[in-house]
Design a protein that fits this description.
The protein is α+β, with helices and mostly antiparallel strands. The protein has one domain. It is built from 3 helices and 4 strands. The chain has a 4-stranded antiparallel beta sheet, with helices on both faces. The longest helix has 13 residues. It is globular and about 35 Å long.
């Protein structure tokens, strides 16, 4: 079972990337509050954040850190960069690919 983090942990992780002084990019996966996010940068570890349903009132997040970005997430980033953010079908395709990964 994956460890579930609160949103404070997600905020702290984003702050650590910001405080690193290095350039990084955060790709938000469409849908939900913080449905999903891929954070990566030059000489930085890649962080994958996924929202997890707990009950009808609550959700949490799983966080995975990789030394090198897995190819499946690189393909998802490519899909995001080449997509039209107003095309709901494309956004749904990206969301499904992200959660299937």
């Amino acid at each position: 079972m994956a460890r579930i983090y609160g949103y404070t942990a997600v905020e702290n992780l984003l702050q650590q990337y910001s405080d690193s002084g290095r350039d990084f990019v955060g790709y938000t996966i469409p849908g939900g509050l913080i449905d999903g996010m891929i954070i990566t940068g030059d000489r930085l570890k890649t962080a994958i954040i996924k929202e997890v349903y707990l009950n009808e009132w609550s959700s949490g997040a799983t966080i995975r850190i990789y030394n090198k970005m897995p190819a499946k997430y690189a393909r998802i980033i490519e899909m995001i960069e080449n997509s039209d953010e107003n095309d709901e079908q494309e956004q749904e395709k990206i969301r499904r690919a992200f959660y299937a990964a």
